[in-house]
């Protein structure tokens, strides 16, 4: 079971390294959005609060441009049956979730580095709060966008629908992480954000459990 | 037919009472607290309607019976309608109580998200042509949406400070309206109104699903004849 | 191990379009079934239902091992499947495709098995080429290798000889013979020659005629 | 004239009347749909019965 999940993850990773389907587009996307923000606000002094909101805007849209690939590419190339015949649906789900988790952490890492380099006013005072927002936010983001990618892959209009469907489901998460990022700039203690952490964590758990139960229905018709 | 007539009379009486019964003085809200008889029941109902939609979505996934999907969609539609009513009434009320139509209060955010989710749900439905696939995918989406909604409806408004009566940081005075420590008359009328709204919902729901089922049956018939 | 594959009153319709109705069969080790019919008669749909890739609208398919029913989630352990619409990962080599499959299936000591199946389908010399560079016939052979990798009890072949040269066709016949010794073979085809691979035949066209007559009555 | 002046002074009752009218029209609409639907369903059921007898 676990080794099969790992095998699917490795397959996706290897395929990604060979084809660079998602990676290149993603990195360019991050660069483009950040420079867009820089152009649009040229010369303005932006507050830390505004910047922490914008950070998650960048992360959300980068995720939307890359995370649907795992399922959509299988569907487009017709390799779905290969996987359907090889293992249980839940194994596929967790393999893909793992891949998306790695991808989202990659995105987060890259975005934050680029952000810290370009946005002068973005000064994080309490790094533990900031880091836990990124990690738990990443977990939640990957979990919800994986199951929605699976839905999207079966629909006719794949590209446009993805952010439309993901955004409302992700909003509770995004509002919480934005709030946490603001707190981290204000220098709040980790203990103060306990409520936020609980929301983020339970969001992740709830979405993963629901996806695990529902994935069978999407995967096989 | 007779109970439908009675329901009409019942709703009329409740509406009249909602405007005329004495509700006692509630600091911070005053007479504007009367909105509770229309606004809160319709908010509740939209949640109930979405819940019913989810139940039918689960039933569809289990049985693969297309009628369950039709009912799920019907309930979601009505939920959307009530949600819209809640948003509009709430927004108008907010103009007079808080000074602007929209304040991004957590509860306003949550209803906005509900509208977005079910908006996306209908977009998804319209984007898929194959009926079974449409039913399955939209069922899964509505369940996923429903498990994330509680974060908004029940948790967020209580954690984040907001303006809405009953949220964290609300001045002590308006609390009774939501915690039901309100005037006994008011409480009875509130629950009576909730009941009336539920009956109206059930009626529309029945109509909507009967209509769609009949449509499917007729289409099947036409197809068979050709 | 006694394996039993039962189809009970299988019916499938896409929306309002009825594909087929009341299909019944029962197969045990050593038996074979051919599914005949014109293009669009629902052959592929039926084999997909048997393999568990699609759900029937009503009726059911049952996998039994020694009288015990197998959960649908575990069917993949018993099925080998070759079809034109089955695609392989073309950014990987033939060997890698098989290796990935073996790992996902959780097979142990798969190197020898991969070598074995590659030799069986005569692709061993080309194992390290990317599938992207394969000809359509070679891809078809690789699909056979994938299907045979875990020694499936049920081998399902949809249009078994499409894209294959005469040597390839011979290979398919050999595989079919081998499969019938101990397992179950199901072939969906519209070529009369290939129907001979199997002992029993379900003809979807005739079934449709029968259904129409019933409606007229 | 009394009513007009009364409403002008107590505009809450004006709102009440509007609310009642809205509810009333919603009900009339629902009842009409209900009646029409019932009719259609009956007709459809008749059609089906007839065919079964015909067979």
From TrEMBL, chain A:
Any Pfam family: CcmB
Compartments in which it is found: Membrane
Keyword terms of this UniProt record: Cytochrome c-type biogenesis, Membrane, Transmembrane, Transmembrane helix, Transport
Residue ranges of the TM segments: 21-42, 54-72, 93-117, 129-153, 160-180, 200-219
Record's bilayer topology term: Multi-pass membrane protein
This protein's GO CC annotations: plasma membrane
Ranges in coiled-coil conformation: none
BP-aspect Gene Ontology terms: cytochrome c biosynthetic process; cytochrome complex assembly
A Gene Ontology molecular function term of the record: heme transmembrane transporter activity
Family: Belongs to the CcmB/CycW/HelB family.
Name under which the protein is recorded: Heme exporter protein B
Lineage: Bacteria, Pseudomonadati, Candidatus Kryptoniota, Candidatus Kryptonium
From TrEMBL, chain B:
Record flagged with keyword Transferase: no
Transmembrane spans: 7-29, 35-58, 78-98, 110-128, 140-160, 188-205
Any coiled-coil regions, as ranges: none
Keywords assigned by UniProt, alphabetized: Cytochrome c-type biogenesis, Membrane, Transmembrane, Transmembrane helix
Domain of life: Bacteria
Subcellular location: Membrane
Chief location: membrane
GO biological process: cytochrome complex assembly
InterPro entries: Cyt_c_assembly, Cyt_c_biogenesis_CcmC, Cyt_c_biogenesis_CcsA/CcmC
GO MF entries: heme binding; heme transmembrane transporter activity
Topology within the bilayer: Multi-pass membrane protein
Protein name: Heme exporter protein C
Function recorded in the entry: Required for the export of heme to the periplasm for the biogenesis of c-type cytochromes.
Family, as annotated: Belongs to the CcmC/CycZ/HelC family.
From TrEMBL, chain C:
Alphabetized UniProt keyword annotations: ATP-binding, Nucleotide-binding, Transport
The keyword Hydrolase belongs to this UniProt entry's keyword annotation: no
InterPro entries in the cross-refs: AAA+_ATPase, ABC_transporter-like_ATP-bd, ABC_Transporter_VariousFunc, P-loop_NTPase
Record SUPFAM superfamilies: P-loop containing nucleoside triphosphate hydrolases
UniProt cross-references to Gene3D superfamilies, sorted A to Z: P-loop containing nucleotide triphosphate hydrolases
Residue intervals of the ABC transporter domain: 5-215
Entry-linked SMART domains: AAA (SM00382)
Pfam family, any one: ABC_tran
Coiled coil: none
Superkingdom per UniProt: Bacteria
Keyword Nucleotide-binding: yes
GO molecular function, one term: ATP hydrolysis activity
Protein name (record): Heme exporter protein A
From TrEMBL, chain D:
Top-rank lineage group of the source organism: Bacteria
Record field: transmembrane: 12-31
Keywords: Membrane, Transmembrane, Transmembrane helix
Protein name: CcmD family protein
Organism name: Candidatus Kryptonium thompsonii
């Amino acid at each position: 079971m676990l080794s099969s999940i790992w095998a699917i993850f490795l397959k996706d990773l290897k395929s990604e390294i060979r084809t660079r389907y998602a990676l290149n587009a993603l990195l360019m996307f991050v660069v483009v959005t950040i420079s867009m923000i820089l152009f649009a606000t040229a010369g303005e002094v932006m507050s830390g609060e505004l910047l922490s909101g914008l950070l998650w805007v960048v992360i959300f849209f980068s995720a939307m441009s890359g995370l649907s690939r795992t399922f959509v590419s299988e569907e487009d190339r017709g390799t779905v049956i290969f996987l359907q015949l090889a293992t249980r649906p839940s194994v596929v789900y967790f393999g893909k979730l793992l891949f998306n988790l790695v991808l989202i952490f990659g995105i987060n890492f890259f975005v934050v580095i680029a952000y810290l380099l370009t946005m002068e006013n973005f000064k994080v005072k309490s790094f533990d709060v900031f880091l836990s927002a990124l990690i738990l936010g990443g977990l939640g983001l990957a979990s919800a966008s994986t199951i929605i990618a699976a839905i999207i892959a079966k629909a006719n209009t794949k590209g446009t629908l993805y952010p439309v469907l993901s955004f409302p489901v992700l909003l509770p998460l995004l509002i919480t992480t934005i709030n946490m990022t603001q707190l981290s700039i204000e220098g709040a203690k980790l203990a103060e954000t306990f409520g936020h952490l609980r929301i983020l964590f339970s969001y992740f758990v709830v979405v993963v459990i629901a996806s695990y139960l529902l994935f069978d229905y999407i995967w096989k018709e | 037919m007779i109970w439908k007539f009675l329901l009409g009379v019942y709703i009329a009486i409740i509406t009249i009472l909602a405007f005329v019964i004495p509700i006692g003085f509630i600091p911070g809200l005053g007479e504007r607290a009367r909105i509770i008889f229309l606004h809160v029941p319709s908010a509740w109902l939209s949640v109930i309607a979405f819940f019913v939609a989810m139940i039918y979505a689960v039933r569809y996934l289990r049985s693969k019976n297309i009628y369950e999907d039709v009912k799920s969609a019907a309930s979601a539609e009505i939920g959307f309608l009530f949600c819209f009513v809640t948003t509009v009434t709430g927004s108008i009320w907010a103009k007079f109580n808080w000074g602007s139509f929209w304040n991004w209060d957590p509860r306003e955010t949550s209803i906005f998200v509900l509208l977005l989710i079910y908006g996306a749900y209908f977009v998804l439905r319209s984007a898929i042509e194959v009926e079974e696939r449409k039913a399955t995918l939209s069922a899964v989406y509505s369940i996923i949406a429903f498990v994330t909604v509680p974060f908004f409806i029940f948790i967020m408004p209580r954690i984040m400070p907001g303006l809405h009566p009953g949220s964290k940081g609300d001045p002590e005075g308006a609390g009774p309206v939501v915690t039901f420590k309100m005037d006994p008359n008011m409480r009875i009328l509130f629950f009576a109104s909730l009941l009336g709204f539920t009956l109206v919902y059930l009626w529309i729901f029945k109509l909507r699903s009967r209509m769609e089922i009949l449509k499917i049956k007729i289409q099947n018939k036409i197809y068979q004849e050709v | 191990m006694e394996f039993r594959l039962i189809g009970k009153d299988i019916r499938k319709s896409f929306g309002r379009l009825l594909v087929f109705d009341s299909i019944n069969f029962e197969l045990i080790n050593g038996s074979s079934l051919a599914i005949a019919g014109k293009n669009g008669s629902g052959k592929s749909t039926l084999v997909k239902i048997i393999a568990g890739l699609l759900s029937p609208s009503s009726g059911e398919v049952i996998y039994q091992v020694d009288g015990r029913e197998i959960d649908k989630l575990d069917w993949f352990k018993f099925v080998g499947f070759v079809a034109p619409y089955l695609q392989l990962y073309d950014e990987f080599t033939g060997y890698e495709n098989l290796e990935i499959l073996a790992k996902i299936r959780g097979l142990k000591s798969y190197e020898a098995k991969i070598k074995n199946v590659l030799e069986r389908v005569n692709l061993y010399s080309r194992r390290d080429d990317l599938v992207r560079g394969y000809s359509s016939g070679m891809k078809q052979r690789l699909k056979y290798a994938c299907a045979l990798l875990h020694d499936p009890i049920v081998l399902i072949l949809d249009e078994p000889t499409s894209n294959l040269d005469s040597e390839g066709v011979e290979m398919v016949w050999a595989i079919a013979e081998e499969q019938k010794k101990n397992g179950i073979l199901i072939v969906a085809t519209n070529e009369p020659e290939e129907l001979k691979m199997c002992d029993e035949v379900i003809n979807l066209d005739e079934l449709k005629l029968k259904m129409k007559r019933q409606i007229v009555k | 004239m009394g009513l007009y002046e009364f409403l002008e002074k107590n505009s809450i009752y004006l709102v009440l009347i509007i609310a009642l009218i809205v509810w009333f029209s919603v009900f009339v609409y629902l009842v009409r749909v209900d009646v029409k639907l019932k009719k259609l369903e009956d007709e459809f059921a008749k059609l089906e019965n007839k065919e079964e007898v015909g067979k």
